[in-house]
Amino acid sequence: MRLTRTLATGAVALAALVTLTGCGSDESGGGSGGSGSSAGAEGPLSKLPQANTMAEVQKALVERGIECNELSASREGMTYMASEAKDPAWGIKERAACHDGGGSPVTLLLIGDMAKFQTSLANTSDTFTIGQNFAVAAESDSTDQSLVQNGLLVLSCDQSIRDSVPSGFETHEGLVKGCFTTNHKA
C-alpha cells in the first residue's frame, strides 16, 4: 500500500514537472525580441510548415499562393546554392529549383540540420524564407514577400537587416548567435 501511494505521488510530481518544463514563451513584439533558442523546436519554427520531400516543399509554396513550376533537382542556369548543397557543413539534405508564376527562379533547400545551416549562413549576407526544415530563395522580391505574408519567416544573420525591422514585427533569436527570424520582409 505504501509503495503504491509513493509511486502515485511520484507520478503526479513527474507529470507536474513535465507540464512546467513544457511551457514556453513565444517572445514576440517589435524590434529585437527573444533570446536563447526561440527559433528552435519550441519557438516560432514549430508553427511553420514542415516537409520530408521536395514535393512537400513545393506543396507548401503552392498552399501559400506561389507557383513552383518545372521542379527539378538540377536545372540549367539555376545554380544558386548548388555547391553549398553538396557541402556537409551546410546541413542541406536536398536542393531543387523551380520557376514562380512570373518565370523567376526559386531555389528550394530541404534542411537536415538547421543549426549547421545557420552556422554556415552566418558567414554570408544571404537571407532565406523558411519553414521548419526547409529554406526558399526566390529571385523575385514579390514571391518572397508573398511567402512571408502567408506564414513563412525570414531567416538572416545580417545585423543590418535586423536593425531595419520596424516596430510591430516579430524577431526571434536563431539557433546560432547572430542569426534571427522575423515576419518582416523589406
Describe how the helices and strands are arranged.
Blueprint (H helix, E strand, L loop, with lengths): L1 H21 L31 H10 L5 E4 L9 H5 L5 E8 L5 E7 L2 H8 L5 E4 L3 E5 L2 H9 L3 E4 L2 H5 L7 E3 L6 E3 L4
Antiparallel strand pairs: 1-2, 2-3, 3-5, 4-5, 4-6, 6-8, 7-8
DSSP summary: helix tally: 6
Helices and strands: which structural class? alpha+beta
Helical content band:
25-40%
User: Radius of gyration in whole Å, from Cα?
Assistant: 19 Å
Give the distance, in angstroms, between the N- and C-terminal Cα atoms. Answer: 66 Å
Task: Kindly report the spatial arrangement of strands forming the biggest sheet.
Answer: 1-2-3-5-4-6-8-7
Q: Biggest β-sheet: count, sense, barrel?
A: 8 strands, antiparallel
Number of strands: 8
Average pLDDT metric: 81
Strand content: 15-25%
Instruction: List the helices and strands in order.
Output: HHEHEEHEEHEHEE
Low-confidence residue ranges: 1-40
Q: How would the global form be characterised?
A: globular
Architecture overview:
The chain is α+β, with helices and mostly antiparallel strands and 186 residues long. It contains six helices and eight strands. It has helices at 2-22, 54-63, 82-86, 114-121, 141-149, 159-163; strands at 69-72, 92-99, 105-111, 127-130, 134-138, 153-156, 171-173, 180-182. Strands 1-2-3-5-4-6-8-7 form an eight-stranded antiparallel sheet, with helices on both faces. The protein is globular and about 40 Å long. The chain starts with a helix and ends with a strand. Mean pLDDT is 81; it is low at 1-40.
